[in-house]
Amino acid sequence: MFLKIFFVLCAISLNVILGQTCTNAQVKGATSYSTSDATIVSQIAFVTEFSLECSNVATERVSLFAEVDGRITPVAIIGDTKYQVSWNEEVKKARSGDYNVKLYDEEGYAAVRKTQRSGEDNNVKPLATVVVRHSGSYTGPWFNSEILAAALIAFVAYFAFSTRSKILS
């Protein structure tokens, strides 16, 4: 009998602890990185780290999900209140400017997935939003140096032969 009561109390306690959500979330100390040189890569990497503070102190490690341009990805927990989000985009599709990373808890994630499945617009209010700025990626020069050197050699050869033919005639 005692064992059954103990398991019931443990299950209820675990449910209460894991079932808490973050209220009045505030993002602190957000830093971000994005690939700036795309000459030899096919994907642009985006990474952002941030701290999340909730008004209810009992919630330290909240499971979060991030939505970026309609794609949802899980958020990695890297400390008690520190989180990290990363995603990739193809070089041709990655735009320069600000990316809004919307953060959702498990309830918000379920609501977002429901709206995506039904084909509706996402009107679910996120816990918080992190802005990641991407200044663009260098994809190389307009002309490769080999092509420029070949064109220069062709021009010099043309000039030399045309000058020679004028001198000889």
UniProtKB/TrEMBL annotation:
Cell location? Endoplasmic reticulum membrane
Q: How does it sit in the membrane?
A: Single-pass type I membrane protein
For this protein, the record's InterPro entries field holds: TRAP-delta
Q: Which UniProt keywords apply?
A: Disulfide bond, Endoplasmic reticulum, Isopeptide bond, Membrane, Signal, Transmembrane, Transmembrane helix, Ubl conjugation
Q: Which family does it belong to?
A: Belongs to the TRAP-delta family.
**What is its quaternary makeup?**
Heterotetramer of TRAP-alpha, TRAP-beta, TRAP-delta and TRAP-gamma.
Name used for this protein in its record: Translocon-associated protein subunit delta
Name its species.
Answer: Phlebotomus papatasi
